[in-house]
Task: structure prediction
Amino acid sequence: MKLTRTISADYDFEIPFYDLDPMKIVWHGNYIKYFEEARCRLLRLFDYDYPQMEQSGYFWPIIDLRLKYVSPARFGQQLRCTATLVEIENRMKIEYAIYDRNNLKKLTKGYSIQVAITTTDHEMQLISPKVLKQKIEHYCGELK
Result:
């Protein structure tokens, strides 16, 4: 299913001291937290965040997560993490990019892949449930 328009959400934040490692740069594991913040904002746009997923009868565990570190982030830096929905047919794939808000330099990029499983027996769905398509169509129009 092709989206008729791009669906993206931004998460703007400042790097806090407690996110740093002993080298005084952001510890690599914290980038996943930034991705998660942007992903939740994206899912809320079309009313299918984690509580709505569960209410619809599905969990959406992450089965693949990739990150590429381009440049380190430092204490006090003003960043933006953008999450963009790119695929929904058999899975939900979201791409991410983290930029410095002042100079637009890309610091990190990556993606996550989630699949639907039923909440009752955790059976993996080979195609995304209709509710995902319905939520997106309600938000942005008909899918092709």
Summary: DSSP finds three helices and seven strands in the chain. The mean pLDDT is 94. The domain at 7-140 is CATH 3.10.129.10 (Thiol Ester Dehydrase; Chain A).
